[in-house]
C-alpha cells in the first residue's frame, strides 16, 4: 500500500471528539463522501507514513489489529472500536480514505480517563419550626475523562417547611 500524503492534509474540517474510560471499549464512526469503494485506514498522528497506520480495512469488510477494529459499512463510513482503553491511548488520530492523488483525512481526538467515582459529601441545614435539621448527602459521581467536576451542578430548594429538594445537573 502506498500512502498518498499531502503536506497540508486534505480534511473535511470536522474533528471527532471521543471520550472513554480506562479498561472499557469505545466506538465512533468516521464518515467520508464518495468513499464507498475505497480502502479506509486509521492512523496515529502525524499520519505521514506507513509506520503511522494502525489498521486498514477494505470496503464492506472488517479488519482488526491489536485492540483496534475497523468495520467498513460500505457506504463511505467506517466504525472504529478501541478495546480495553489505556490512558496512553489519549492522543490525536486520523480516519483516512485511500484515494488516487491525495488521501482525505478526518481528525480524531481521543481522551481516556479513569473509570472511578468521586465521592462528594454535602451537608446543609434547614431550620424547621421546632428544631434545626442537618442533612448529609453522599454522591458518587463518575469522573469524566478530563477529570472535571465543573460539569456537575447542584441546586437546593425548599419545597415547604419540611422538605428540601436536591436537583442534580450535568452540563
Identify the notable features of this structure and list them briefly.
Immunoglobulin-like; 171 residues; five-stranded mixed sheet; four-stranded antiparallel sheet; mainly beta; 2 domains
Give a structural overview:
The protein is an all-beta fold and 171 residues long. The chain folds into two domains: 10-112, Immunoglobulins (Immunoglobulin-like, Sandwich), CATH 2.60.40.10; 117-170, no CATH class. 0% of the residues lie in helices and 58% in strands. The chain is built from no helices and 13 strands. It has strands at 10-21, 26-31, 40-44, 53-57, 62-65, 68-72, 77-82, 91-97, 104-113, 117-127, 132-142, 152-160, 163-170. The strands form four sheets. The chain has a five-stranded mixed beta sheet with strand order 1-9-8-3-4, with no helix packed on it. A four-stranded antiparallel beta sheet has the order 2-7-6-5, with no helix packed on it. It has a two-stranded antiparallel sheet with strand order 10-11. A hairpin with a 2-residue loop joins strand 5 (62-65) and strand 6. The chain is globular and about 40 Å long. The two termini are 45 Å apart. It holds the Pfam family V-set.
Amino acid at each position: 500500500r502506498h500512502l498518498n500524503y499531502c503536506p497540508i492534509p486534505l480534511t473535511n474540517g470536522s474533528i471527532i471528539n471521543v471520550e472513554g474510560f480506562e479498561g472499557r471499549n469505545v466506538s465512533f464512526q468516521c464518515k467520508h463522501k464518495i468513499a464507498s469503494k475505497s480502502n479506509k485506514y486509521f492512523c496515529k498522528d502525524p499520519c505521514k507514513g506507513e509506520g503511522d497506520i494502525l489498521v486498514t480495512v477494505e470496503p464492506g469488510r472488517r479488519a482488526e489489529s491489536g485492540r483496534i477494529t475497523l468495520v467498513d459499512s460500505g457506504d463511505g463510513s467506517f466504525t472504529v472500536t478501541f478495546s480495553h482503553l489505556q490512558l496512553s491511548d489519549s492522543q490525536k488520530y486520523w480516519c483516512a480514505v485511500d484515494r488516487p492523488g491525495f488521501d482525505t483525512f478526518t481528525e480524531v481526538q481521543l481522551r481516556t480517563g479513569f473509570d472511578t467515582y468521586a465521592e462528594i459529601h454535602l451537608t446543609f441545614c434547614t431550620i424547621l419550626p421546632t428544631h434545626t435539621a442537618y442533612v448529609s448527602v453522599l454522591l458518587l459521581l463518575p469522573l469524566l475523562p478530563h477529570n472535571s467536576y465543573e460539569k456537575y451542578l447542584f441546586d437546593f430548594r425548599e419545597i415547604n417547611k419540611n422538605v428540601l429538594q436536591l436537583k442534580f445537573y450535568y452540563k
